[in-house]
Design a protein that fits this description.
The protein has 295 residues and is mainly β. It has five helices and 17 strands. 12% of the residues lie in helices and 33% in strands. The strands form four sheets. It has a nine-stranded mixed beta sheet with strand order 1-2-10-16-7-8-9-5-17. The protein has a four-stranded mixed beta sheet with strand order 6-15-11-12, with no helix packed on it. The chain is elongated, with a radius of gyration of 19 Å.
Length: 295
C-alpha cells in the first residue's frame, strides 16, 4: 500500500509507519551529550525558558535509519548489507541524505497516526541526533534518535506511553525527488515512475554482476540543499513501517518547558514563571500541511 501523497508541484510526502535494546538517558545526560538547541534554548534548561510554560512527557525514541549505497557512479544501488533498513513502504534515505536532513526534525510537530492538523498537535520534537552503526567492517548506516515532547494535557496518550501501550513512532517528510534504487531513474512530482517502482518495489532483482538488489524509493539526493528532504513530523502509531522506530525510554515524565500556541500552559501553583522570551519552534505551519494533502 502506497504511503506517499503529493505535497506540492515540486515535492512528495513520505511517511513510515518497528524494538531496540534500551539506552537509558536522563534529561541532564541528554543535554550534556547532545546539547542541541530547540525552542531557542538548550533542551534541558530548567530556567529562563518562557513566561508561558507547559508540562511535557519527554521521550527518547528511534525514528528511522539510513541505508548504505554503492560509490559513484552507481550510488543509487543499496548495499545488500543494509537492505533490511529500507522501511516497509519501500522508502529509504542514504547515509549522506540523512546526515544533511536529520536536523529538520527539530521544532516539527508530534502527532498521532499522521493526523497532520496543527490544531491536533500533541507536542513537538525538541532534538534530533544520529548514531553511527557499523554493519560490517566496510559498511555502516545511521540510526536517527529524537527527543519528543508530548503535552501532558493529552492524558490518554501520555499514560499509554508511560504504561507501554503506546510504543511506536513514524516519521513524515517531504522530498524533492525520489530515485529508483535499481535503475537510478530520478522521479519528481508529475514524472512517470520506472517499471521497477511501478511494479517491483520490495523485490530483490539481480544487477549486472548477479548481486540481488532491493527495489525501493531513495528519497532526496546528496546534491540537493539539505539533501532535498525536510522532516515535518513524528507520530505515535500502532504499526510502524520501520520496525526499529520505537520508544527507547522516558527521559522525564513532567518536564516544564516552553509553551507554544499549540500547547497548554501548565498549572505551576505558586511557582513564579520566568520572564525570558523563547520563540515558538520553527515547525511547519497549518498551510504547509494543507498543501501536503492536495492530490
Amino acid at each position: 500500500m502506497r504511503e506517499a501523497r503529493v505535497a506540492d508541484k515540486e515535492s512528495l510526502t513520505k511517511k513510515s509507519y518497528g524494538k531496540l535494546n534500551d539506552s537509558k538517558f536522563t534529561l541532564e545526560q541528554w543535554d550534556k551529550i547532545y546539547g542541541q538547541k530547540a525552542f531557542g534554548a538548550k533542551t534541558a534548561s530548567l530556567s529562563k525558558i518562557a513566561a508561558n510554560k507547559t508540562r511535557y512527557l519527554l521521550s527518547h525514541a528511534t525514528i528511522m535509519a539510513s541505508v548504505a549505497v554503492e560509490p559513484e557512479p552507481e550510488d543509487w544501488l543499496i548495499k545488500p548489507e543494509s537492505s533490511h533498513t529500507v522501511n516497509n513502504n519501500e522508502d529509504a534515505w542514504s547515509n549522506d541524505v540523512l546526515a544533511l536532513s536529520y536536523k529538520t526534525f527539530i521544532g516539527s510537530f508530534n502527532f498521532v497516526e499522521h493526523y497532520q492538523n496543527s490544531k491536533h498537535a500533541k507536542g513537538h520534537i525538541l532534538d534530533s541526533v544520529l548514531r553511527k552503526v557499523q554493519l560490517t567492517p566496510e559498511t555502516w548506516i545511521y540510526f536517527c534518535d529524537i527527543l519528543v515532547a508530548t503535552d501532558r494535557k493529552h492524558e490518554e496518550l501520555t499514560e499509554g506511553i508511560l504504561g507501554g501501550k503506546v510504543r511506536y513512532m513514524s516519521m513524515g517528510c517531504v522530498t524533492d525527488l525520489v530515485t529508483c534504487s535499481y535503475c537510478g531513474k530520478q522521479v519528481k512530482e508529475g514524472d512517470r515512475y520506472c517499471v521497477h517502482l511501478q511494479f517491483q518495489k520490495g523485490q530483490f532483482l539481480p544487477d549486472n554482476d548477479g548481486i540481488d538488489r532491493r527495489v525501493a524509493e531513495l528519497c532526496g539526493n546528496k546534491s540537493l540543499p539539505g539533501g532535498g528532504v525536510r522532516f515535518v513530523e513524528a507520530s505515535w502509531v500502532a504499526v510502524p513501517a520501520f520496525p526499529g522506530a520505537a520508544l527507547r525510554n522516558v527521559v522525564d515524565a513532567n518536564w516544564i518547558g516552553p509553551g507554544t500556541k499549540y500547547t497548554t500552559e501548565a498549572d505551576l501553583g505558586n511557582k513564579a514563571a520566568s520572564q525570558s522570551k523563547v520563540k515558538d519552534p520553527e515547525g511547519p505551519s497549518a498551510a504547509d500541511f494543507k498543501r501536503q494533502f492536495k492530490s
